[in-house]
């Protein structure tokens, strides 16, 4: 009887090993990108320059809200940070091909982007606004005023500003540019009526060029969640990022840095 029981147990064990073994081995072989980062000792961060999210200071170093976030993230991981500047239009393909470990670049969550990447919990929210040329736009003060044939709107290619302009200003002519600086130059040179961009850029431009530009709208016309973007299927990595957001939001660290970069000009002397 004992021999029978022992044989039965061995049979069950062997069957379980056959069934569960491959799955267990496969899971073991799949290492989280978080483990890769920790072993490497460096987290590679993809981003593009958007003032004041990320920009170069007078020494040529990167500064800005997202730069602070990336440095804090690396510090809490116990690793160094390597910044990988990448054109916005190609930043998701670059993430997917492994050029870097994460996008920390003021990226808004959209269903289309979410088909390609996983997003963390939002660590900030951004809204779209309009900054207009006084000489070109006159006294226009509503979205409807800019949604007319013959109105030219400059936006950055591949951004949610481009989507917002398409959806909210379908009748206006949209001009797309790779760089934010190009949209600003078009506006200052009176080649477009307005620029659509996420605040605080419109707000800062209207203050900096008060004799040429103004803010037609009193409030942002969208509100968009900003999140980390990582490659799909890495639950450990995403779990760590989500909890990083929760902890640094609860401590007020994220709000503190956002206020510094978006509602003060204490950093302006670092770039001028």
Automatic annotation (TrEMBL):
The keyword Signal applies. It holds the Pfam family SBP_bac_3. Its main location: other. GO terms for molecular function: ligand-gated monoatomic ion channel activity. It comes from Pseudodesulfovibrio cashew. CDD domains: PBP2_Dsm1740. Residues 1-25 form the signal peptide. Belongs to the bacterial solute-binding protein 3 family. Keywords: Glycoprotein, Ion channel, Ion transport, Ligand-gated ion channel, Membrane, Receptor, Signal, Transmembrane, Transmembrane helix, Transport. SUPFAM superfamilies: Periplasmic binding protein-like II (SSF53850). PANTHER family: GLUTAMINE-BINDING PERIPLASMIC PROTEIN (PTHR35936:SF38), MEMBRANE-BOUND LYTIC MUREIN TRANSGLYCOSYLASE F (PTHR35936). Residues 42-265 form the Solute-binding protein family 3/N-terminal domain. GO terms for cellular component: cell envelope; membrane. It is a multi-pass membrane protein. This is Transporter substrate-binding domain-containing protein. Residues 42-243 form the Ionotropic glutamate receptor C-terminal domain. It comes from the Bacteria. Residues 52-97 form the Ionotropic glutamate receptor L-glutamate and glycine-binding domain. It is found in: Cell envelope; Membrane.
């Amino acid at each position: 009887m004992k021999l029978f029981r022992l044989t039965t147990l061995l049979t069950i064990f062997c069957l379980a090993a056959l069934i569960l073994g491959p799955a267990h081995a496969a899971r073991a072989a799949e290492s989280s990108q978080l483990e890769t980062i920790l072993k490497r000792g460096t987290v590679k961060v993809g981003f593009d320059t958007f003032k004041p999210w990320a920009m170069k200071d007078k020494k040529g170093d990167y500064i800005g809200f997202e730069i602070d976030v990336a440095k804090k993230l690396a510090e809490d991981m116990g690793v160094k940070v390597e910044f990988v500047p990448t054109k916005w239009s190609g930043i998701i393909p670059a993430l997917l091909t492994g050029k870097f470990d994460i996008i920390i670049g003021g990226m808004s969550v959209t269903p289309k982007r979410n088909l390609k990447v996983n997003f963390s919990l939002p660590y900030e929210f951004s809204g779209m606004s309009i900054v207009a040329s006084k000489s070109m736009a006159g006294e226009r003060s509503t979205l409807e005023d800019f949604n007319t044939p013959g109105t030219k709107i400059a936006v950055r290619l591949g951004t949610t500003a481009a989507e917002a302009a398409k959806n909210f200003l379908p009748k206006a002519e949209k001009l797309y540019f790779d760089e934010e600086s190009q949209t600003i130059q078009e506006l200052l040179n009176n080649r477009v009526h307005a620029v659509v961009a996420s605040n605080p850029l419109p707000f800062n431009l209207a203050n900096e060029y008060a004799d040429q530009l103004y803010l037609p709208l009193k409030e942002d016309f969208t509100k968009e969640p900003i999140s980390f973007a990582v490659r799909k299927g890495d639950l450990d990595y995403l779990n760590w990022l989500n909890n990083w957001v929760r902890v640094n939001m609860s401590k007020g660290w994220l709000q503190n840095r956002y206020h510094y970069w978006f509602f003060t000009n204490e950093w302006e002397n670092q770039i001028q």
